[in-house]
Automatic annotation (TrEMBL):
Name the record gives this protein: von Willebrand factor A domain-containing protein 5A
InterPro entries: VIT, VWF_A, vWFA_dom_sf
PANTHER family: VON WILLEBRAND FACTOR A DOMAIN-CONTAINING PROTEIN 5A (PTHR45737)
Superkingdom of source: Eukaryota
Gene3D superfamilies named in the record: von Willebrand factor, type A domain (3.40.50.410)
Biological source species: Colletotrichum liriopes
Amino acid sequence: MVFGANPGGRHHMHICGLYYLDPAYQNRFPGPRKYLPPLSQSVHARIIASTSRTTLTQTFVNPSSDTAIPELRYNFPLYDGVSVVAFTCTINNDRVIRGVVQEKNTARRTYDDAVAKGQTAGLLEQLPDASDVFTTTVGNVPAGAQIAVKIEYLGELKHDAEVDGTRFTIPTSIAPRFGSYPGTLLNKPTNVSTHEGISIVVDAEVPSGSVIKSIQSPSHPIAVSVGSTSTMSADATPSLQLASATLSLGTAELDNDFIIQVIATNTSNPVAVLETHPTIPHQQALMATLVPKFKMATTKPEVVFICDRSGSMEGNRMSDLKNALKVFLKSLPVGAMFNICSFGSGHSFLFDKSVTYDQNTLETAMKHVETFDANFGGTQIHDPIEQTFKRRHIDLDLEVFLLTDGEVWGEENLFSMVNNHIRKSKGAIRLFTLGVGQDVSHSLIEGLARAGNGFSQAVSENEKMSGKVVRMLKGALTPHVNDYSLEVKYSDAESETEPEDEFEIIESDSATLYKPLTQDASHQPKKPISLFDTSADEDVEMEGEQPHTDGTGTDRYSHVPVVKPPKVLQAPFQIPPLFPYSRTTVYLLLSPDRELKNKTPESLVLRGTSSQGPLELQIPITILQEKAETIHQLAARKAVKELEEGRGWIFHVKSKDGQSLKEKHPGRFPSMVEREAVRLGIQFQVGGKWCSFVAVDNDPASPGSKEDRQRDLAHVAEKATPDQVFTVRRCQAVDAVGKSFWEQIKSCNW
């Protein structure tokens, strides 16, 4: 199977901007793109601990004063794993359309219907071939109109092992260079004032007990203010828990990814925070950040380095790859086994099978690295990874390091292959990824690391990396622990039951989650149908049956078996290996119908076993006093991401006869997975592969303000059953979501 790189660069066709297809080329698909000139661009991000909320605002103009545009498209790439939670489009500063999440096909019909009626409408979707690229379609844009697009998204911040801090990234492609547009950039009208340049502001906060040591950027020169944020008043009291970084460019373009590193004290303790949903009664979500500190002896496994030598790695990328690989090789423990695989259009191994690491084999490997060049053609990444798995010494654990710029397509099949090999090895294989250079595909390197039970790191061109590389290797040499589990411990102050009954254990493969297709209630034998009916007319044309729809899109799954979601849904469902110098976040969605919904969670208990003995950690839970949705949305997106990548709780459910759902219903199982992702997307208003944001121009004559509608919807949600809540949630305006979380979490003891 071939996974080819885009010769012009992976993101060449996926840059941020509004464009339409030239109508003069109607018979050509696709026609040339005409990009609307940007008037202003701004980014504001707020970092709290290891989470971020980012608002991206861009304003464009239709340069024609007499021609309306029937349909505009807006592409924007985002860092892997983010949750898009709000989408608004403003026309001429007076017409605002706000997005809500619907099942993807339903959202498309809603959009098409609105456009057909002449309404301004928007549709935000995830591209099927790249999970970190979203696209928005805006219909019926008037002549000369100014269009402001605002996207709001949440994300977990990566741990940067080089500085032992958090890493925040804004992709280059949100502000593309002039010559990188895959089409024509139209001229700005002379009668429209513009604000040249781009402004990026990043505000950072750490909780009490921590102090920001520094906020820095390895990619751009920034202005830094310690003690305050951009939103504080001038007379506010300064605090070392606050800092702000600003990038202001005279041109509206980024020459490479914008990276911020936040280094603070006392951020290495495991924490757990509980949030209560504002509109779904008894619905709660828990976020646990796990930061292990092991006292266990390191192992001497088999280590294989898979190195990208395709044409896209030329220049500084290849130099950085070689430097990283040399650090890896010099840091291996004596007695381990190792090999090097080079790949591009094809692949080759330094040794037929991995060899023992000693002075002689190290010298051979170092001489081999000196010959590296970006001369292996295109990028075919599937076969070298699979061959590395197949060549392993089955009596040793295998640690694989992939060094690449990530410019490939076909991610889903690649993730599926890695998932299968990891599962077959029963956890003996782990895959780590190091993204090299600017414009790295974070969806690829993050997705492969998740599928491979490892973790990823990224280095931009000429960025320091020795500390990062050594810490990655130290993580890979830790013993394999594959049975981590979580339990929620509740306070028994008001309980008459024994303390051991006050634990809520995460459901896994329980047959109680599964319910077969409902049979006919009457159970009466049906009247036989005649095999020769003279009234039957074989020449009558077949009429297409119009599917019934309830407006949510979930009715399209009525033909598949019912599977109840766990009362405590964990994401990721299987806790991945935990590594020193790498923070792992695990979420729990606590459903309203769980048995202990009226009790107060007290602590989270993490357990595991290793060859060196049992492991256990108890983490106290901090309860946020005000209700919010941020943790719920991060949890839902993590759960949906797993389903999109072929993992998650539904893959572990078994029927009463012991068969997995995938084995019992091979034809319907994909629909079962999709239905669960849609349920989570609609209920918690997060977009993804099977859910889209749709926005339609509101009727100005509609009664009631937005605040009135919010209040009415919240009131309805309080009286709805858990199964009905998603219908109410579908109607809520997303941009009012989760604001209070950010005011509360800064006071938590992380």
